[in-house]
Design brief:
By secondary structure, the chain is of the alpha+beta class. The protein is built from nine helices and seven strands. Helix 4 (about 120-205) packs antiparallel against helix 5. The chain has two domains: about 1-165, no CATH class; about 205-385, Histidine kinase-like ATPase, C-terminal domain (Heat Shock Protein 90, 2-Layer Sandwich), CATH 3.30.565.
Length: about 375
C-alpha cells in the first residue's frame, strides 16, 4: 500500500515537470525562431511580408531543434554532469551542435515538402541555415541546460531541507512528550501517597470512614488513569477531583480544614493539565492546614482577566517560604508541565499575602480546550461512581 501511495503522488508531480518543460520549449522556440527575422528588420534587410515568412521559417527550425533538445538533454544531463569539467563542456557543446544539425535537417525537409526550397537548393540552404542554428541553439541550449540543472538542485535542496525540518519537528515533539510523561509520573504519586496517609490515620479510629475514603480514592485513580490519555481536561472535572480530595482530607482534619470552590459557567470547559489544580490544593493542605492547630481555609476561584483565564488557590496559612520551594517541588514540576503544554502562553505565579497566607495562580489561554472529547464523559462516570 505505501508503494502504491508513493507512486500515486509521484505521477502528478512528474506530469507537472514535463508540462513545464514543454511550455519552456514553446516560448524558447518562439523567441529563438523570431530572432533572425527581427535582426533583419532592425537592420533594414527585410520587408514586413518577408519578416512574417522568416518568422514562420525560424519557428519551424526552432521547433525541430528545440523538440530534439527537450527530448534528449534531460535524459543525458546526469551522465554529462558526472564527467570531468573540461570533458563535460566539450561533450555538452558537441551534443547540442549535433542536435542543432539534426533539427536543422528536419526543418529543411519540412520546407522542402511545402515547396519553400527546391531539391537543388536544399544543401546550400542547409549549410547557410546550419551556421545560424548552431549559434542560436548553443546560446539558448546552454542557458536552458544549466537553468534546468540549477532548478533541479534547488528543488532537491528544498526537499531535503523540508525533510530535515519535519524530522527535527518530530524529534522535538517526541522529546516534549517524553518530558511531559516524566513530569506527570513524578507529580501523581504525591497525590496517592498523601491520600494513603490520610486513610491510614483513619483505619483504627474510624474504619467505616476509611473504607469510604478507599472507595473514593479508587474512583479518583480511575479518573487519573483515564485523564492521562489527554494532555488537558475540563476545569469543571478538575474541580471535581479537587473537591473529592479535600473531602477526603477533611475527614482527617475535621473542622481544621475549610474550603470553597467557585468556577464560573464561562470557564467550566477551560482546558487545564490533569491534577494541576489538585497539586495547588495539596500544597495548601500540606503547608497551611497540616502544621497549624487552628488549620486554614482554602479557596479555589477561576476568573477571566485581560483575555486570559486565571485559576487561583488561596489559603490563610502562614505562607510559603523559599524552604518550601525546593528543587523538584510539585509547583516547579507544574510550571514545567505548563511550559511544555502551552509555552509562553501560560505561567504559574506565587504570591505571599500581606494579611498572611498564599495565593498560587495558573494563568492560561482562554482558548485552551481539552484535546480528548471523551474527558467529560469520563468525569460523569467518576461522579456516578462517587
Amino acid at each position: 500500500m505505501p508503494e502504491i501511495a508513493c507512486d500515486t503522488l509521484r505521477k502528478p508531480r512528474r506530469r507537472i515537470r514535463i508540462t513545464r518543460r514543454w511550455l519552456r520549449f514553446l516560448w524558447i522556440s518562439a523567441a529563438s525562431g523570431s530572432m533572425p527575422a527581427l535582426l533583419n528588420v532592425l537592420f533594414g534587410h527585410a520587408s514586413v511580408s518577408q519578416f512574417v515568412q522568416q518568422v514562420l521559417e525560424g519557428i519551424c527550425f526552432a521547433g525541430c531543434i528545440g523538440a530534439l533538445c527537450t527530448l534528449v538533454l534531460p535524459r543525458i544531463a546526469a551522465p554529462i554532469l558526472s564527467l570531468p569539467n573540461a570533458l563535460k563542456w566539450l561533450t555538452l557543446i558537441s551534443v547540442i551542435t549535433g542536435l542543432a544539425a539534426l533539427g536543422c535537417l528536419a526543418a529543411m525537409s519540412i520546407l522542402l515538402i511545402v515547396n519553400r526550397v527546391t531539391p537543388a537548393e536544399f544543401w546550400a540552404h542547409y549549410a547557410q541555415a546550419l551556421k545560424t542554428c548552431v549559434l542560436i541553439t548553443l546560446a539558448f541550449g546552454l542557458s536552458a541546460f544549466f537553468y534546468e540543472v540549477a532548478t533541479g538542485r534547488l528543488n532537491k535542496a528544498t526537499a531535503d531541507l523540508k525533510m530535515r525540518e519535519e524530522a527535527a519537528e518530530k524529534l522535538r515533539q517526541v522529546a516534549l512528550e517524553a518530558r511531559l510523561s516524566s513530569l506527570e509520573s513524578r507529580v501523581q504519586p504525591h497525590f496517592l501517597f498523601n491520600t494513603l496517609n490520610s486513610i491510614l490515620a483513619l483505619i483504627r479510629e474510624e474504619p467505616m470512614a476509611a473504607e469510604g475514603m478507599v472507595e473514593r480514592l479508587a474512583a479518583l485513580l480511575r479518573f487519573s488513569l483515564d485523564a492521562n490519555q489527554s494532555r488537558l481536561v475540563p476545569l469543571e472535572l478538575e474541580a471535581k477531583i479537587v473537591r473529592d480530595y479535600l473531602e477526603i482530607e477533611q475527614a482527617r482534619f475535621g473542622a481544621r480544614l475549610r474550603f470553597a470552590i467557585e468556577i464560573p459557567e464561562s470557564l467550566r470547559e477551560l482546558g487545564v493539565p490533569p491534577m494541576s489544580l489538585q497539586t495547588l490544593v495539596e500544597n495548601s493542605v500540606k503547608y497551611a492546614v497540616s502544621p497549624r492547630r487552628e488549620g486554614a481555609s482554602i479557596e479555589v476561584r477561576a476568573t477571566e482577566r485581560d483575555g486570559r483565564a486565571v485559576v487561583e488557590v488561596t489559603d490563610d496559612g502562614p505562607g510559603l517560604t523559599d524552604a518550601h520551594l525546593k528543587v523538584g517541588h510539585g509547583l516547579e514540576l507544574l510550571q514545567n508541565r505548563l511550559e511544555v503544554l502551552f509555552g509562553a502562553e501560560a505561567s504559574l505565579t506565587i504570591e505571599v499575602l500581606d494579611s498572611g497566607g498564599t495565593r498560587v495562580a495558573l494563568h492560561l489561554p482562554v482558548g485552551a480546550r481539552p484535546a480528548n472529547a471523551d474527558a467529560e464523559r469520563e468525569g460523569e462516570k467518576v461522579g456516578a461512581a462517587l
